[in-house]
Amino acid sequence: MTRAGSTGGRGAGKDAAAYRAGFGCFVGRPNAGKSTLTNAIVGQKIAITSSKPQTTRHVIRAVLHRPDSQLVLVDTPGLHRPRTLLGERLNDLVRTTWSEVDVIGLCIPADEPVGRGDRFITGELAELKAAVVAVVTKTDLVDKARLAEQLVAVSELADFAAVVPVSAVSGHQVDTLVDVLTGYLPASPQLYPDDMLTDEPEQVLVAELIREAALEGVRDELPHSIAVVVEEMIPEGEIIKIYADVYVERSSQKAIVIGARASRLKDVGTRARREIEQLLGTRVYLDLHVRVAKEWQRDPKQLRRLGF
Ligand SMILES: Nc1nc2c(ncn2[C@@H]2O[C@H](COP(=O)(O)OP(=O)(O)OP(=O)(O)O)[C@@H](O)[C@H]2O)c(=O)[nH]1
């Protein structure tokens, strides 16, 4: 196991010779804690987390600024066995992302045995140019003895550039992980301006927040059947008016999302609006419409329209 050294030292400032910049991403089986870790690192809610697998669909970049480095995090969905066109597109997206980054954090939860899924992903990473850092996540869920066992088990999976235990919930080792990842970035000029946190269009972030709110409480009934498109965001004085469509696959699902006397949709709107106001830092008027797009997961035209 190696520990990356400092990334140019204090006082290096933006000295061109010492500056590092590049791309990184977290991979791992569903529920490994990738989105939560990204959020903990960036300190702002920009990726979607949930207790159900495979909810992260969009590639979301978070730009992490340090005096002497810039780490651009790319968030990928989980790799899984494709059953629909959507599944295939997601896997293509994951592989493309992997081939373009400088450092990959392979997330393996501390509280679950190393399994087939972890071995599969490790094998897939073997041929890439990127440095692979094993990240043992959710360390707050296990005691020291169990963590030690897991670190050994993970180290035996492959010859990783480093193995770093971390807890996104307690914050333990989150900074250390960033130091380690940054250590594997190439010498490079700054890639993005100082004030940039993410280059994902605001509309996509807003759509993700609405989708998350719409899934709340109905994930078992509608696991992958909801897509959201933000049609318009219009600033009007102090507020932003947002018009969005929530797509489901069947009218029975439409009824679930709307709820009796539209009570559920109202809750969804309230919850989403609060999150969006936090994201945008301004008051928001949110207009939601629920529409049926039959079998959108299997239809290439619809998928393109819905942003996949
Ligand atoms: N206790 C604890 N729970 C965590 C930690 N990190 C993530 N979790 C939980 O683990 C679950 C999955 O986390 P996500 O971040 O959504 O996992 P993911 O790998 O992005 O999942 P997919 O989007 O399905 O690929 C959620 O319920 C999180 O709250 C952690 O450090 N400690």
Automatic annotation (TrEMBL):
Binding positions (GTP): 28-35, 75-79, 137-140
Subcellular localization(s) per the UniProt record: Cytoplasm; Cell membrane
CDD domains with a match to the protein in the record: Era (cd04163), KH-II_Era (cd22534)
Membrane topology: Peripheral membrane protein
SUPFAM superfamilies with a match to the protein in the record: P-loop containing nucleoside triphosphate hydrolases, Prokaryotic type KH domain (KH-domain type II)
Ranges where the record places region G1: 28-35
Stretch list, region G3: 75-78
Residues of the Era-type G domain: 20-187
Family statement drawn from the similarity comment of this UniProt entry: Belongs to the TRAFAC class TrmE-Era-EngA-EngB-Septin-like GTPase superfamily. Era GTPase family.
Summary of the function given for this chain in its UniProt record: An essential GTPase that binds both GDP and GTP, with rapid nucleotide exchange. Plays a role in 16S rRNA processing and 30S ribosomal subunit biogenesis and possibly also in cell cycle regulation and energy metabolism.
Name of the featured protein: GTPase Era
Organism encoding this protein: Micromonospora zhanjiangensis
